Amino acid sequence: MTPHPPRSAPPAPVRLRLYAWAVGLFLGALEGALAIGVAGARGGALPLVGVVGAAMVLGTVAGRPLSRHLGRRRTGLVMAVLAAAGAGLAAGLEGIPVLIGAGLAGLASGGMLVVAPLVCHELSLRGHKRLMPQVMALGPAGAGVVALAAWWSPARVPAAWGVFGGAALIYLVCVLRLPESPVWLVGQCRDVEAFEALRRLHGTLEASVAIDWTRLDAEMLAEQQALTPADLRVPQVRSAVLTGAVLILAQEAPLGAAALVLAPLVVADLGLGSGAIAVSATTWVGWTLLALALVTRVERLRFLRVVLGAVVAVLGATFLVVGMSLGGAAGAWMIVISLTILVASQSVLVLPACQGAIDPRIPPWLVEAQRRASATGGALARAGVLIAALLVVVHLGMPVLYWAAFALSLVSAVVVLLRLPRELKV
Fold first, then answer.
1. Could you read off the pLDDT of 78-120 as tens digits, one per residue?
2. What is the number of domains present in the chain?
3. Dmax of the chain from CA atoms?
4. DSSP character string of 335-403
5. pTM of the model
6. Is the separation of the CB atoms in 218 and 181 below 8 Å?
7. Which residue range forms the structural domain that includes residue 263?
8. pLDDT (tens digit, 9 = 90+) per residue, 378-414?
9. Closest Cα to residue 28, out of 129, 124, 148?
10. Is residue 214 part of a domain?
11. pLDDT mean over 189-200
């Protein structure tokens, strides 16, 4: 398998693409629901954000053993049911049940971050266009739909969680339409069922060839080992792990998801009307369309896109500071625009490019350990940045957040520029 399929690579089957898009919209819808909750509660939203962040980290830890024992499909069904139940609790009740519901939603989202890459990889054929970049590209669209649907509702927070519940049900339908992972079936000594799953999805001829690759993947999966300190003494492994840490920094340091989640709160703090929310949410959807067009046509130059995204994030953070200095309506709108630029730097450039970027640099028997560490580390970094950003807003004010975003984006860009140019040739 080549690390970068050619530009003429065929697309995955429609059912599999719909699954990937449903995952992206689901993950984005959770961010949108958080954004509405934060805008309504401000400092009171800290428990909500903390619970969701912690649950997502826990979900990434629990997702791997669940998918190994239950299978990818049944694990996906469990995550969908958890998310739908959590959305129902958060939308229909108040107080502690809201936190429980949000925790269930976060747990499902964390598990999905682990299960979705397995499903997309194990149900695709060699040479198909990669689906996880499309998953990450669709996040802002899910958040935008939630914001547009909930902001003008008389009960914003319940409406936001209701839309998130709808996204969970869409994901549930997409999971039901897919077969079980043939790689998992082969690992359970159910080769005939694995071939039938491939045949249902790709046809008899393609399945006849793919079953051999599936057996190879299952054998490699059985040989996976944990990443140990001894492995880090190997220069290749140490270099790949360091690059992975830099990629997480590039994703989360320039506010990351916080630029989207805090956007409605920033708009309310600036005194702008609902028109600013509509502009922001519509722009998020537009960024998704641009990101999809990019990731479905260009799969090479991943590290170059990360570098470009880091530079664009610095530009957006600079506009934040300039808008704060200007003041007035012009400054307020510049701040709103700068937040959309920060969202674009992540959703269009950085997040899609980071998916699987260092897999070819990891020894085959450590790939699963690396993916698990990346998922957990990314969720932990995202939760930390979001909680820290909200704490800064509550206790120090918006101007301090703008300066912090500028400093973090600058540090991120410097680290990326120091580390990744040596990778651009790959």
1. 999 999 999 999 987 778 888 999 999 999 999 999 999 999 8
2. 1
3. 68
4. HHHHHHHHHHIIIIIIHHHHTTTTGGGS-GGGHHHHHHHHHHHHHHHHHHHHHHHHHHHHHT-HHHHHH
5. 0.89
6. no
7. 14-178+223-423
8. 888 888 888 998 999 888 888 899 899 899 888 888 8
9. 148
10. no
11. 87
